[in-house]
Amino acid sequence: MPSPSERQPIKITSEDLAGVTVPETAIVSPSPSSIGTKSYGTITEAAEQFVPVTEEKGSILLQGWFYLGVAGLLGAIAGWGICEPGFVDGGKLEHWGNIWMVPLILMIMSLGFGISESIVERSAQKAVLRGVLSLPLGLIFGFLFYFIANIIYSLALKICYEAGAQSYRNPAVWLARGIAWMVFGAAGGVVYGIVGQSSKKGTYGVLGGMLGAGIGGFIFDPIAMLTHGAALSRAVGFALVGVATGVGMGLVESALKDRWLYVMAGPLAGKQFILYKSQTNIGSRQDSDIYLFKDPNILPQHAVIQIIGARVQLRATGPTFWAGQPVHSRVLQDGDLLQIGRYSFRYKEKHRS
Question: Could you tell me the pTM of the whole model?
């Protein structure tokens, strides 16, 4: 039993505190095996363990103008190859090759435009669904727009002939064809917007398609003069129209976008996801608007981006980082850095004057 004198309170003076020393924290050097190793970080790490991601060089295969251009090229060549054996130069329009060539080219080009983005995003499910929708739409719009284009071309040729341009060597005739073929590009853009479930995407597709197809149509007759062969000239001409239509759609879409996510790191580095919809779903489900694959830590529906007027709201249901800090909800601002699993995004928006 302690005596009363032993229960006196302990007194610590300032002199006592001055003599206290704190040991230095040990500095842990990185192990040799970790030097030079690329790390994306993980979504299970604490915020203070967040590893900033260095921007990776993107592949040209993920650029919209490239994969849409390839889709247009392959679609045009495929349609031409199917119908060329049944095409008769100077023959009656009743011959099946003459009737089907342009509509079939438009149908297969529309199919390519509809599924190309899903293919580069590795979403087979979305590609199949869009392909099933694109084929009938492409066929219907192919014949409809072909009919409209023929009317426009006939009227334009009549104007050219009355003005004295009566040879396909005259640039006025080239212009007439270019104007008429702008209708073909519009058809591809319409299908592109429908399967993408966005009127804005369709508008950009129509504008870009008209621009590209108009250029392709304008150079079609000069190509025919250079190739000196009916079948070859059609093959080269339609191929260039297909490429120009797809490239035009991709370039116009990129130029007119106002809000988008740019993938800085991960399997889709270099890809930009334009935020067309009022709600964009992000997750590991293949039918997600932004499908993130090759990461088991990403939830089927991991996050959603909602556009409400001028506000862009991120809502995360799975682990998500903003500038290295865990975030569940945030109004996005231009330049924000987001990380979901091994994917790193930069949110961008076009500045309005």
Answer: 0.80
